[in-house]
Amino acid sequence: MGLLSDPNRRKAITSLTLSVLPDVVCYLAGIAWFMGLAFEPFTLRTYMSENAMGSTMVEERFPSGERALATAREFAAHKKKVGGMPVDWLVKTMRAQGLEVFTQSFSRNLPFPDESKERFVVRGTNVYGILRAPRAPRTEALVLSAPCSPGNSNNQAVGLLLGLAQYFRSQIYWAKDIIFLVNEHDLIGVQAWLEGYHHTNITGMGYTPLQGRAGSIQAALSLELNSDVVTSLDLVLEGLNGQLPNLDLANLFHAFCQKLGILCTIQGKLQRSDWDTVEGYTHSAQTMLLMVLKQASGRPWGEHGLFLRYHIEAASIRGVNSFRQYKTDATSIGRLFEGMVRKLNNLLERLHQSYFFYLMPSLTRFVSIGYYMPAFGLLTTILLLRALDLWVHLGTPTPVTEDGVGEGESPSSPGLLSVLTPVVISHLTGVALYTLPVLSQEMAVEHFPVSETEAVVLTAIAIYTAGLALPHNTHRLISGEGTEQGWRVLKLVALLYLAVLLGCTALINFSLGFILAVTLVPAAACVTPHVPKALSAVAMVLLSPGCTILYCVFLFQELQEVPVSLAEGWMLFLSVISQGILDHALYGSLVYPLLALLVYPCWLLFWNILFWK
Amino acid sequence: MATRHLFIELQTLNRRAKLKIIFAKFQCLCIIPALVGVDKKTCIQFCLCTFQEEMVIRPLYSGDIYASFQFRTQWDTDFLHDGKKVSHYRLFPKSLGQVLSKFSVRELHISFTQGYWRTMQWGQPFIPSPPGAELWVWFHHTVTDVDGNWKELTNVLSGIFCASLNFIDSTNTVEPSASFKPLGLGNATDHRFLRYATLPREIVCTENLTPWKKLLPCGSKAGLAVLMKSEKLFHSSFHSQAVHIRPVCKDWQCTSTAWELRQTLNVVFDLYTSGQGKKEWSLFKMFSRTLTEACPLASSSKIYVDVTDNPGGELFDLSPSSPLISTAVVLGDRRTYSVYDLTKKETFGQLRSLNLLLRWKGENDMLRPPLHAERYVSGFGLQKGEIHTCLYNSHPYRAYPVLLLDSLPWYLRLYVHTLTVTSKTRENKPSYIHYQPSKDRLRPHLLEMLVQLPPHSVTEVTVQFERALLKWTEYTPDPNHGFYIGSSVISALVPSIVAMDTNSTRDRPLFSSFFPTKEESSYFMRVYTEPLLVNLPTPDFSMPYNVICLTCTVVAVGYGSFYNLLTRTFQVDEPSAPLAKRLANIIRRLRGVPLL
């Protein structure tokens, strides 16, 4: 430590670390590191960690794909006749197959109408059949689920589910009970079923208690299938609050796709072999960015997403039928599921051997937490360096200027009030942003010609914008002028606050933390009251959390290869906000409260500093 | 030493089985009364042992089939009172007899079960048992060191039955105060002499079946036991084997006692996997064997087929049909059975082999059992949870009390103040609660209560718990699998539809005479809930754990130096000493005098 104890060298090091240069280097390095994660030589190949699923051989013999499709047609006819879920038919069919069948009815009032799915008061019934494993004491179970969607979609999934149930029933090798679940109203039905199964109530759902259970659920697979033949199967992993299932589940899916010769994709993107070309790299970067954006959104991207809260490893498998020549029939898909369920049946422990925190640039490659965290670490280093700089400045006594002498307040110790007031006021704005949109929808609908959903979203945007007027209000409360020391202390507090906030977010949901860091860190690092006001204000607004969501919407559309115009993008942005609020109310997604109660107030603190007088 | 002796006994048993049959025939000739020409009653008095075998076949409404074997050996001796050493064994297995006398066992019940009895589909079993292994023993009241005897006994039984009973220790043994009364003679009430333990994780397989079969007088060489081929018995939905030893009345006057050994085996064959979906059953299809003879040592050897719901033959066909019909009151209901007596030659017909064939024709409604129960853990996360036990009384108008016994391991820390009992959304106060708190690593929780179940209702018993963090050596080799919590036991006197038979000495089929009945209006019933699998907070035992340690060290070093830099004030050191002074110091150091 001789280097650090020498005052001269120390001064040099301090001045170097606290200059702008390392900040810029860290920021660029962080971004570069992150983008480098999609480059194949830097990533690891996936491998099966779980012994019970790796070496054991299973043979897939599911024979009756055609019969499953016939069942699907029958199901479709009954669905049309009833005009919804054909509960009686499902109960009868499952019972005839030798399952123990139970139903659960549920109801849920949405806080405001969901315009994308056209629902407000939801009532429905889940039907599930339990295949009891021979000589097993009902302690473990696997779940296979398929949604009963409105219209003509997903009939094949239910048909295949029933076909698998029939085939599985006649096999002797099951060690875990298998639950076949057909749920109504997609995620709301799954949420009701899971809450009923675990006897919890976290979202204010009304449901009837479940009559039959099968112990602790070890894994779940969700099935979405819209056509008799498919081109490829897409694996969906992103769940509620950015939770991911164990990587072994993805490996298992990939292994069986390889074995059965089925095209498999992740984020709807096929694997490419030309990693050393620009196109190859762009492709995997797009795949990874899509995963990051989906994970950051914190919504469940399939029915599996809700299982993850209960420590049940789950994934959705979605059949895609495009115009390619290559087709896979229902028998092969059935065999894929048979193989996966049999291997999961072989599990001796819960899936825990492989990674829970990862990003996937393709189905065969993954980036583990140890590789992606440095990218985020580099970005937060900037905040810490800035904080250190302010700390050093606050510590060194400034020469007393003539103006400073004679004022009542000592310049070195700004009053606690001048720091506390903006913090409290900005958080109150956050609370208003969190509560008012849903509460005031009726009033808004009365006074303005808008629907409830529009009212909620527009109120949110209005409160968000109104928060920009905060500096004036703050200054009115603080007596006297803000001092030079005052904004420094405030910025120091705000920087540390942001660093802790982002750090915690990134630990739970890396993608969300990283995306917020990319936009918030430059704004937080650069802002002082001495920069040109108008220009900086525009830059600050552009780097605010709300605008980040807007960019993400456009980027997401771009990556999915369905670019949208500005107007369409704006409409999408509005629907994303309403969906975010709904996700919070329906499934307990934490992104909306996080942004409204913590991130936005934190950003307001920096906004306050910009307009410090 | 005793264990070793028993092992040798076991090994030689098989070889001696055939020899034994011949010897036994000579020694106990009177079991074939026709040969000697004395009537059966005098024979039992004269002779010291009888052996009966019996099988009941009950077609279940789900299309499955339930087969229950019972083998009963009665030995008219008492090696507890007399104090004499018994060394002369015939039909009663010596290995068990020695255990009984050495450990002064009054009553012993042990069961090994693979699978869970589905009460809602299958109705009531003749002798219920929980998944895994269950052992409960009443010791004689002269025993001073009950715990020591219990410990040794479990180890010996572990050897006899090739099971992991040696894992029974103080952490899973309880002394139930009310739930397990002696089933045999004598009304012992001092539960200090009772020990009860379950091993819900025990896997039952052929290695447990073989020693169990060897306890039979005929082994698996003759009689009903020839049907017990493990490849078929374990190709089923449910398999349970048990041994029950208890003192019973020697004769109808009950002047002296005798030992009764009942070996039972219950198995349920599945319609879809064993029956290939065809509703057609035969002995050959179930067991891949047919019957050709009774066990020569057996005084009675019978097959009962439940034909209660099939009076006119519209539900199923049974062939060959039997002229013998018997009725018995079983589990609160009067049932009719077709009886096949294997000691009679005409039973086997022309082919000299009996292959019962049962062909379903119609559908029938499921019969709701009067009492059933389920249990589950609610909540999520690894900190807290709640155990829910739901008791269903489906009797339309009668309320009756049940005894609920819960034995939970210490690593579930029960919050007893959260214990609630509700039926029909109202609080249902138990009239009796016996709770013994756990001691960490020493003994489990024991919770017993008497709850009145209102008619046609669900009673829910809930209690919250916290999951303890174990020491790292206390985890099982597969910690992420979870920890098993044994079944709750529900014992009840259920109101009976028909008058129960209270005369215990009358000659009745074995399956209807296991639980003693004291009154006509109700019958005893025991229900086990499913065991639970509970995940405890588990450290990551693998590499990331090391990585975290390493990272923490690095962070600590980095943080230390940073902290140093931020807090310490530095001063300029005085310039180094002049050359002359340094030279002088070197010389002084060499001389060993203090430096300048």
TrEMBL record, chain A:
Q: Which organism is it from?
A: Electrophorus electricus
Q: How does it sit in the membrane?
A: Multi-pass membrane protein
- Location within or outside the cell: Endoplasmic reticulum membrane
Assembly notes: Heteropentamer. Part of the GPI-anchor transamidase complex, consisting of PIGK, PIGT, PIGS, PIGU and GAA1. Interacts with PIGK.
Q: Which UniProt keywords apply?
A: Disulfide bond, Endoplasmic reticulum, Glycoprotein, GPI-anchor biosynthesis, Membrane, Transmembrane, Transmembrane helix
Q: What does this protein do?
A: Component of the glycosylphosphatidylinositol-anchor (GPI-anchor) transamidase (GPI-T) complex that catalyzes the formation of the linkage between a proprotein and a GPI-anchor and participates in GPI anchored protein biosynthesis. Binds GPI-anchor.
TM annotation in the entry = 20-39, 369-394, 494-527, 534-556, 562-582, 589-610
* Name of the featured protein: GPI-anchor transamidase component GPAA1
From TrEMBL, chain B:
GO biological-process terms attached to the record:
attachment of GPI anchor to protein
Q: Which Pfam families match?
A: Gpi16 (PF04113)
Any one cellular-component term (Gene Ontology):
GPI-anchor transamidase complex
Question: Which domain of life does the protein's organism represent?
Answer: Eukaryota
PANTHER family the record matches: GPI TRANSAMIDASE COMPONENT PIG-T (PTHR12959:SF11), GPI TRANSAMIDASE COMPONENT PIG-T-RELATED (PTHR12959)
The name of this protein is Phosphatidylinositol glycan anchor biosynthesis, class T
What is the organism of origin for this protein?
Electrophorus electricus (Electric eel)
* Gene name of the record: PIGT
